[in-house]
Amino acid sequence: MEEDPSESERGIWKLSVDSSSCISGSGAGLVLMIPDGSTLEYALRFKFKATNNEAEWEALIVGLTIAKHLEVQRIEASNDSQLVVGLANGEYQAQEEPMAKYLSHF
């Protein structure tokens, strides 16, 4: 029986994002894990008012943009927003205009 190759051997990067929004502003953190196990960490501060889900989208899009500039070929992204994950996976349909715009950009 052949073993499943490790993520490092498959060249899969991992992107984890988390964000928050409150009266004083919104921001996010993201971590890109390189297949060799090292990480790139970023902190984002948004200069606009955003809901939690909008901040989650912003962080996801920034993380994927960074990965694109680094010429990443394979990536797995994780996010703790059920709405954002459902929209990105095609499980949900965008009901509100802001979510539809983020989904279109994604």
UniProtKB/TrEMBL annotation:
Gene Ontology molecular functions: nucleic acid binding; RNA-DNA hybrid ribonuclease activity
Highest taxon, organism lineage: Eukaryota
Signal sequence extent: none
Domain RNase H type-1 residue range list: 25-105
SUPFAM superfamilies: Ribonuclease H-like (SSF53098)
InterPro entries registered for this protein in UniProt: RNaseH-like_sf (IPR012337), RNaseH_domain (IPR002156), RNaseH_sf (IPR036397)
PANTHER family: RIBONUCLEASE H
Name of the protein this chain belongs to: RVT_3 domain-containing protein
Organism of origin: Cephalotus follicularis (Albany pitcher plant)
